[in-house]
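Narrative of accomplishments. A recurring question from our advisory board has been how the design workflow behaves on a single, concrete structure rather than in aggregate. To address it, we present the structure tokens for one chain from the evaluation set, followed by the sequence designed for it. No filtering or post-editing was applied between the two.
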């Protein structure tokens, strides 16, 4: 066939088609008003209400072979509209496409329906009346006039699609306190009918205002734009809508959706929603705000993979049942005790924990089955918890921390601490309020805590004092109020320390407390060496941002520690004591001991004292105590001759008992401030000996040459010394010895003011081994004056005759001053 002939045929067909269409349009226009009135009449006969439209339009062959007619400004009202004023439908343009083939068969079959710009409102009032009654047949209609479902099926049986453009939909069930509101911005429902089953494919954009199955409990999908791609079936026989796996996109998050809507009187909506990698804040946006706010209070909002099960009664005034299974991606969480990094969690939530009770916040439960992370980014954490009653959340939690201590060094200032070895394990269980866990007003946890901690072979160095602690083992039990130290064993140098006790006020520091911490401990050691005190260095204050260093410093600033100390042996330099027992108190501002008893110097030694005002530039030292039946040689040896060289432990022997008090100021480096020294010493010396004492031996060179001044024995000596500044003043005392009787008194100085006066009665010249003469100063005397000259004691001798002696008895005599 030639090209020209083909062209003629095609043009002829178009010409015939144009003539037919023109005729159809002419016919449609001619009978337009009649058709319009006929449609409204037939529609009003089928409904229990009133349908009106402002205008009518007709287009043949629109969208294929058929007719399209449009109704403009369509209103549909039920018979009770005047009472409730809720118009069921208002559409600016309702377009219906009719299959033209069916018209030749004298049938009316709708192929598609399109609604543009309008709203559909479904109302159920308090009495249960609904404006859906507009679709019920009129009661006055005869049986023959009543709606024939078969004829209706013929009309819509070949319906292929329904589209909505900018059509709002609202369901207000006042009786059940339910409200669903959305806007179909551009939505098409593709339809395929199989007997009584309708296959539906819904695609397009819908904006949800809210979907509240119980308005008091909040709404789903509040103010959310969505994109729908859904596959469904609807049974007109059972009023059952089934949703096959479909997709709903909310913002940029895609949800997989499946489930069903049962529109029977007791029907439910049952949905399963799945999402992969959505941030929790966006996931919460699709559930009721009240529930979302409750969950948000926990401040746990990671990226999650979640499955949501929803069971919502459609026509009963009940809360929907919500069940959520989710698994988080790695996230960071700022917990009440500090940051937890790289958290992974698997959890389940339901708002109907007890199936016998209705769904509610009080009946809600969150079970976190397995949670891992790193506390402060360094301490491995494993825990699981349950939260119940989301109205007043109640938390039950168990977990543990495990750590190799050297891995925690980043939490400490390297200038202060270094963890060298060991492992730590902490296990805990908490039950109580969740929000908040800690009450800042009472400085207490809002619940019960129970746990234990262990240290295994720990070792650390404290650099400011060059102190190394090794072989540290400990078992600790704790609750919300107290830390019970079952035992803490460690070595410091050659000291083996054993501690037990309890501490109160410590745990609140995990929640940034700053209240007092009180410790009560017992310390035992078989051999306590204190020589390390000589190496004490003042700790330099420096700004520090390391977590645990700041925490330790903060606790130390508020710590008040009471200790019972027991040591089989204590030694410091030349001092040694055994069976040491007493109480020691530590705080940031002071250290004191109370009734510390020990065996020392061959006798008994008891002391009470302390150092105060650590927070001031000058500290205060004070002490009082007594020594009973001690070996005076050992006393001088232990205290290194009290810092003087005139008389030493090599010169003395005998038993001494003393009572003393002492106070002094100390510098920040713990050195004495000499001018501030004050004290009193009362002593009694029995069976004393003075051996190889050079000042006494010098007397022998002048007098009493035949007597033994190498070993001088004494009867009991009693006296009192008064310390004022650097001067030690002694009252004049009579000393009766194996070689002579003499009197001594004056001032011994720790600087250059020593002025001692020794008076030897010359009646000693007549002394024999069985001497019974009562020597005194009423006769002639040898006066020896010991003076400090350029740091060396010089002796000056002078004979004192009776007349001079009487002058010396006067208070202003230079010999007595």
């Amino acid at each position: 066939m030639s090209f020209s002939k083909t062209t003629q045929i095609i043009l002829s067909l178009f010409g015939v088609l144009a003539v037919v269409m023109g005729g159809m349009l002419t016919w449609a226009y001619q009978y337009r008003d009649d058709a319009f009135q006929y449609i409204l009449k037939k529609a009003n006969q089928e409904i229990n209400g009133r349908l009106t439209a402002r205008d009518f339009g007709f287009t043949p062959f629109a969208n294929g072979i058929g007719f399209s007619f449009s109704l403009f400004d369509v209103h549909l009202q039920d018979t009770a509209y005047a009472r409730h004023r809720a118009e069921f439908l208002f559409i600016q343009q309702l377009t219906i496409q009719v299959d033209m083939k069916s018209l030749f068969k004298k049938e009316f079959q709708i192929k598609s329906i399109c609604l543009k710009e309008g709203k559909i409102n479904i109302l159920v009032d308090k009495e249960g009346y609904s404006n859906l009654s507009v679709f019920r047949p009129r009661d006055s209609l005869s049986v023959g006039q009543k709606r024939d479902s078969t004829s209706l099926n013929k009309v819509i049986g070949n319906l292929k699609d329904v589209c909505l453009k900018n059509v709002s939909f609202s369901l207000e069930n006042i009786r059940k306190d339910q409200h669903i509101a959305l806007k179909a911005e551009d939505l098409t429902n593709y339809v395929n009918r199989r007997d009584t089953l309708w296959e539906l494919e819904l695609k397009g954009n819908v904006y949800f205002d809210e979907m509240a199955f119980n308005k008091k409990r909040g709404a789903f999908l509040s103010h959310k734009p969505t994109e729908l791609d859904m596959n469904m079936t609807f049974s007109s026989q059972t009023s059952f809508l089934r949703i096959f796996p479909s997709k709903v996109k909310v913002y940029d998050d895609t949800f997989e959706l499946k489930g069903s809507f049962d529109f029977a009187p007791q029907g439910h909506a049952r949905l399963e929603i799945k999402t992969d990698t959505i941030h929790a804040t966006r996931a919460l946006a699709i559930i009721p705000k009240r529930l979302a706010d409750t969950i948000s209070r926990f401040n746990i909002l990671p990226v999650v993979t979640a499955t949501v099960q929803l069971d919502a009664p459609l026509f009963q005034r009940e809360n929907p049942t919500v069940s959520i299974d989710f698994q988080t991606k790695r996230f960071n969480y700022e917990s009440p005790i500090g940051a937890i990094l790289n958290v992974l969690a698997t959890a389940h939530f339901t708002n109907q924990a007890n199936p016998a009770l209705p769904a509610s916040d009080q009946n809600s439960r969150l079970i976190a089955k397995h949670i891992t992370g790193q506390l402060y980014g360094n301490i491995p954490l494993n825990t699981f918890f349950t939260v119940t009653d989301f109205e007043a959340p109640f938390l039950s939690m168990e977990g543990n921390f495990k750590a190799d201590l050297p891995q925690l060094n980043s939490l400490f200032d390297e200038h202060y601490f270094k963890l060298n070895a060991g492992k730590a394990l902490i296990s805990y269980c908490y039950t109580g309020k969740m929000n908040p866990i800690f009450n800042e007003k009472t400085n207490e946890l809002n619940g019960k805590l129970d746990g234990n901690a262990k240290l295994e072979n720990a070792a650390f160095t404290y650099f400011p004092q060059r102190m190394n602690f090794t072989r540290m083992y400990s078992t600790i039990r704790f609750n919300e109020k107290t830390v019970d130290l079952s035992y803490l064993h460690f070595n410091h140098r050659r000291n083996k320390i054993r501690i037990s006790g309890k501490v109160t006020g410590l745990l609140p520091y995990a929640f940034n407390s700053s209240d007092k911490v009180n410790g009560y401990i017992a310390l035992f050691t078989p051999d306590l060496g204190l020589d390390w005190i000589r190496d004490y260095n003042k700790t330099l204050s420096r700004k520090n941002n390391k977590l645990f260093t700041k925490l330790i410093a903060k606790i130390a600033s508020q710590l008040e520690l009471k200790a019972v100390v027991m040591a089989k042996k204590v030694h410091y330099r030349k001092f040694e004591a055994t069976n040491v027992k007493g109480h020691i108190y530590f705080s940031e501002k002071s250290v004191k001991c109370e009734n510390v008893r020990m065996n020392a110097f061959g006798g008994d030694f008891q002391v009470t004292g302390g150092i105060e005002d650590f927070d001031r530039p000058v500290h205060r030292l004070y002490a009082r105590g007594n020594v009973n039946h001690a070996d005076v040689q050992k006393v001088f040896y232990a205290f290194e001759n009290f810092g003087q060289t005139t008389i030493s432990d090599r010169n003395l022997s005998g038993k001494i008992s003393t009572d003393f008090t002492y106070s002094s100021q100390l510098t920040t480096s713990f050195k004495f401030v000499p001018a501030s020294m004050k004290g009193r010493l009362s002593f009694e010396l029995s069976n004393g000996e003075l051996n190889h004492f050079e000042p006494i031996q010098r007397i022998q060179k002048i007098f009493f040459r035949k007597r033994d001044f190498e070993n001088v024995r004494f009867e009991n000596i009693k006296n009192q010394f008064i310390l004022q500044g650097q001067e030690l003043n002694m009252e004049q005392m009579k000393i009766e010895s194996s070689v002579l009787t003499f009197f001594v008194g004056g001032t011994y100085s720790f600087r250059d003011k020593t002025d001692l006066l020794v008076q030897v009665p010359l009646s000693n010249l007549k002394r024999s081994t069985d001497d019974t003469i009562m020597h005194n100063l009423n006769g002639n005397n040898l006066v020896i004056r010991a003076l400090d000259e350029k740091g060396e004691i010089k002796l000056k001798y002078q004979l004192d005759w009776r007349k001079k002696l009487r002058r010396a008895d006067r208070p202003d005599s230079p010999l007595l001053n």
